[in-house]
Design goal:
Blueprint: E1 11-14, H1 20-31, E2 35-40, H2 44-56, E3 61-65, H3 76-85, E4 90-93, H4 108-136, E5 140-145, H5 158-178, E6 183-190, E7 193-194, E8 219-220, H6 221-232, E9 243-246, H7 250-253, H8 255-260
Parallel strand pairs: 1-2, 1-4, 2-3, 4-5, 5-6, 6-9, 7-8
């Protein structure tokens, strides 16, 4: 994974990199000298803005549309981007979706959509990336973006929690099976992060109050990207099969409490 001056640049493919955690990760990895493949589903302009930011750091960028409800064809985007950029060293399975619907009211179509986007899609993209990494013979990194709901439940998010919990265990199986080929596989489990998905685009997290989160605020996408960048880099060569929680302490409270408590009274014994 250590690149010499005469070696080709490392290439990372990041799904859902048109905004939020995906964009922040693309920029962070570009700053570290990585060329970036970017996928988008609905926001093509956002993806192109991410690409421009990557190029502003002197790195190459390629863009492809990926609709993870269209499986298995959607995973072709991983191969297209790897072909365009010449290789793939890092895959970040970041694209995701969720629900806010009671368990008894969720229809089967919605359940299947969430499971495809959040679990089956990353499974297939991981296969595509791992096969290429093995053929290249130089190892690789796969990082699956899960959620605190990989670990604990949330009311109204039954298929999301099921998918993220499944992705967490999938991460562990992948780590065991791919270790012999020097491919590490880890999960990053964010809590509440200020992104378009949580309705907080361009939010200054330092001005937001979250009494139920020990850190007292939401997270910034760049704080998640920093952990992904570590796991994607050479310093994490001995880290695999782990889930890295980035949540300001939310899980210690329980995510239901962490996001619903309205005062700081819990801080006093």
């Amino acid at each position: 994974m250590n690149a010499h001056s005469d070696s080709p640049a490392r290439v990372a493919v990041i799904t859902g990199a048109d905004s939020g955690i995906g964009r922040a990760t693309a920029v962070r990895l570009a700053e570290q000298g990585t060329d970036i493949g970017i996928t988008w589903h609905e926001d093509e302009q956002g993806a192109r803005e991410t690409a421009e930011e990557v190029r502003s750091h002197g790195r190459r960028a390629a863009v492809a549309r990926m609709d993870l409800t269209d499986l298995p064809a959607a995973a072709d985007a991983v191969d297209r981007l790897a072909d365009e950029l010449g290789r793939i060293d890092v895959l970040v399975n970041n694209a995701g979706t969720g629900t806010a619907t009671p368990f008894l009211d969720i229809g089967l179509d919605t359940v299947r959509q969430v499971l495809d986007v959040d679990l089956v899609g990353p499974f297939l993209c991981g296969q595509r990336a791992a096969r290429r990494m093995i053929d290249q013979g130089s190892g690789g990194r796969i990082v699956n973006i899960t959620s605190v709901h990989e670990h604990q439940p949330r009311v109204g998010a039954a298929p999301y929690c099921a998918a993220k919990g499944g992705l967490g265990l999938l991460t562990q199986v992948m780590a065991l099976e791919l270790a012999a080929d020097a491919i590490t596989v880890n999960a990053v489990a964010p809590g509440e992060i200020a992104t378009p998905m949580t309705g907080q685009e361009n939010t200054d997290v330092s001005t937001e109050e979250r009494p139920g989160i020990p850190a007292g605020r939401p997270g910034d996408a760049r704080e998640v990207a920093a952990v992904v960048a570590f796991l994607a880099g050479p310093d994490a060569a001995y880290v695999t099969g782990a889930s890295w929680v980035v949540d300001g302490g939310m899980l210690r409270m329980g995510p239901q409490a962490g996001s619903h408590l309205g005062s700081d009274s819990w801080r006093r014994p």
